[in-house]
Amino acid sequence: MMNANTLALLPEGILTVAGVVVMMAEPVLPLKASRKPLGWLAILATLAAGAASWYQIGFGSTLAFSGTIQVDAFSVFFHLLIAGVVLVTLLGSLDYFDGWAGETAGNSGHAGEYFALVLFGAVGMMLMTCSVELLMVFIGLEISSISTYILAGFRKGKAAGAESAIKYFLLGSFATAFFLYGIALSFGATGSTSIAAIAAALGTQEFSPLAFLALGMILIGLGFKVSAAPFHVWTPDVYQGAPAPVVGLMSTAPKAAAFAVLLRITFIGYGAMHARWAVLLWILAALSMTIGNLGALKQRNVKRMLAYSSIAHAGYLLAAFTALPEAGISAACFYTAAYAAMNVGAFAVVTQITGYAEHTRTLEDYTGVALRRPWLGGLLAFFLLSLIGIPFTGGFFGKFYAFSAAIGGGHTGLAVIGLLNSGVACFYYLRLLVAMYARHAEEGGNQPTRFTQLPWPAEAGIAIATLATLVLGVLPGRVLDLTNRGASALLNHPASAADPVVGENRLH
Q: What are the beta bridge partners of residue 194?
């Protein structure tokens, strides 16, 4: 029988072992041999990690590793979400390095490193979501960040890729420094880096300017990870230079982990300061929505447009943070799931359209794509409509719950700003959609309508994202039950600073 600590980090352990095996096996394979078997190993490990996370639901709210790790419905929800995003990413990029769609073969020589880095990144993201100790959160953040820094520049020989990785690394290092400084100030203000102990200390004292400053530093660090304005400046350039499947991953899974940490820190650790930090997040939400959508209006490069779109969606999600605790946490969790499904799906389609060389970059390059590849075009159109927030898609209910929660918290003005920004977003999403269904002038009525066959793993990944986006828009009840359960677990069963090993035996 495994001990409590092993069971608590079972998903992370599975991914770590698989990542190490991939890294050890990759140099042994011949240089020109396909790395797909390593990709399949990574996919199986992701499925196993997801199954292990689902198994943890039966544990209830449980602590491990001397009270630094908490397994509950909240952490399990984000573990499953991250595993799902990683699964779609791996399926969509399994053939990416083998020169799919006519690209020159020979790009697969470093694919093994790619699969390992994706797994190690997922380990850091999952560790962030279940950590209730700020130093453990920092460790998870660094594991995730180092992996994504390398992945951002993974198209070797591309100047844009190198620029993307360097810019992401340098700005990410500054953000990490702010986060670490916030942890230090939290310790100075409360005498602990445990989230529960911070909550207990702040609940028994008057307003502490030092603690509020600490929270501000933490918000800056996490604001960078979620691409919230004004900490968004890295996003367009990094998204443009990074490989399309990597952008799909880094625009969803790390953000989900960062939002999970932000929910735990604000509503639990700094819950006594809710009235004060809600104002800060109100400002960040309004700035992110407005700057993101206005920036997207000017873009001709599709990846840069989607980068600004991700900034706007961070603002929509932050609107839920201004709500009352249970409604706000549940709405934020649901929106995170909806955004992850539709955005990773959109980039999975973009990956198949552009290929490794990514010749299809601008709006003009997408002209007629839906006529040449009807299924790909139709699926991308579906994800774009979900990003707009059209009914019967996950994006609609995500915005509905986020804005409803904000209104319930007394922030009707923020909801109005969000609705106006959603109207602005229609323009640039529909501009891409119209371009996909337009005919080139020189092609006249002879535009081909044949569907180009995709690798079946990529089809499976896109199908998973499509189904998730559709289910969240048509039958959101089951996911809402999970988010409500997660919110209740977060609010009603915080880690006990006084008894850090409570509940460990319940893992046996």
A: 133
